[in-house]
Specification:
This protein has 324 residues and is mostly helical. The protein contains 16 helices and two strands.
């Protein structure tokens, strides 16, 4: 069996050999720019690991792995337009580099190309994979809409927030794992279990990302700390604090990011002081641990030899930057 690094190298080599037409340049060049821009490749890696865990041929999984990565990057192109984001993975976003119209159309082409790649999976598995991929893609769009809706609302419950990140983040990871399992000839029961493993892991990953934005380091987060606070995002930390805070502290949470008399550092410090009053950090860390432990526990129910699940376990630990 191939380890995680070997799987990743195999996928990167496959991507490097993908070719697009040279013209029209402003349609295809941004696609190459986006797909070669790095990223953790967490979705295609998991798809291929799941395929191999159930005894499948990872070479046959490469087109589907490329399809989920293509779809993921399509969503990033459009997200950057909606967020007016000028930077993606440490370099200018497609939106910043070529403008809104190019980012829209190149993103559309990426979504279409993802379906083209799926046509390359074994014919006997195509219908099942399409039944996974298409609703998964729609759910990601639903999650993005909920995320935008929340920006306009004063109150968002923790349950609503968890549903949003499940749709926006976790279902793409879970769907990728399930597609890999189908390609590995897993049973329907095993496919559902691997889906739930990845769903729990995706939730843990997003909760950790929220936590790192306030309590991590710039090295861990990959960008400046406190961005969510400065944007007034209704993250899990915000929901946890709002559910326990006094009305006075709730007002601080609601309005600090709008206070132009405060510097960015002062805004971050003021909100974090509220978080600390209600032990928000520890509460979210407990949620992260619970989700992670659920994911790992599911691996033990698959009925596979431990050698076959070991790389999935290592994948989860690496994703969460955990040590054995």
């Amino acid at each position: 069996m191939k380890n995680n690094d070997q799987i990743l190298n195999l996928f990167e080599n496959y991507l490097a050999q993908m070719q697009f037409p040279e013209e029209p340049e402003l349609l295809y060049k941004p696609i190459l720019y986006s797909m070669s821009g790095g990223g953790k490749r967490i979705r295609p890696t998991l798809l291929m690991l799941a395929c191999e865990a159930f005894g499948g041929d990872v070479q046959q999984a490469l087109p589907a792995a490329a399809a989920v990565e293509m779809f993921h990057n399509f969503t990033l192109l459009h997200d950057d337009i909606m967020d007016n984001a000028n930077v993606r993975r440490g370099k200018p976003s497609v939106f910043a580099q070529w403008g809104e119209n190019v980012a829209i159309l190149s993103g559309d082409a990426m979504m279409i190309y993802a379906y083209y790649l799926l046509r390359k999976v074994p014919e006997d598995k195509l219908a099942r994979i399409m039944d996974i991929f298409t609703p998964m893609a729609l759910q990601v769009c639903e999650g993005q809409q909920y995320d935008m809706d929340f920006e306009q609302r004063q109150k968002v419950s923790m349950a609503e927030y968890m549903n949003m990140i499940e749709l926006k983040t976790s279902v793409l990871l879970a769907g990728s794992a399930m597609i890999g399992a189908v390609l590995g000839n897993a049973s329907e029961s095993e496919c559902r279990k691997i889906y739930n493993y990845a769903l729990e892991l995706g939730l843990a990953f997003q909760l950790q990302d929220d936590w790192l934005d306030s309590f991590g380091t710039e090295e861990e987060l990959g960008k400046k700390i406190g961005g969510d606070i400065l944007e007034g995002k209704k993250t899990c930390l915000m929901q946890q604090a709002m559910s326990h805070a006094t009305e006075e502290d709730r007002e601080i949470l609601r309005t600090t990011y709008l206070d132009n008399t405060l510097s960015d550092d002062e805004k971050i410090a003021r909100v974090k002081a509220v978080y600390e009053r209600y032990d928000v950090s520890h509460a979210i860390l407990r949620m992260i641990s619970t989700r992670f432990e659920r994911a790992i526990a599911i691996l033990d129910t698959l009925g596979l030899d431990s050698v076959r699940t070991e790389h999935l376990r290592i994948y989860a630990e690496n994703l969460m930057n955990r040590k054995k």
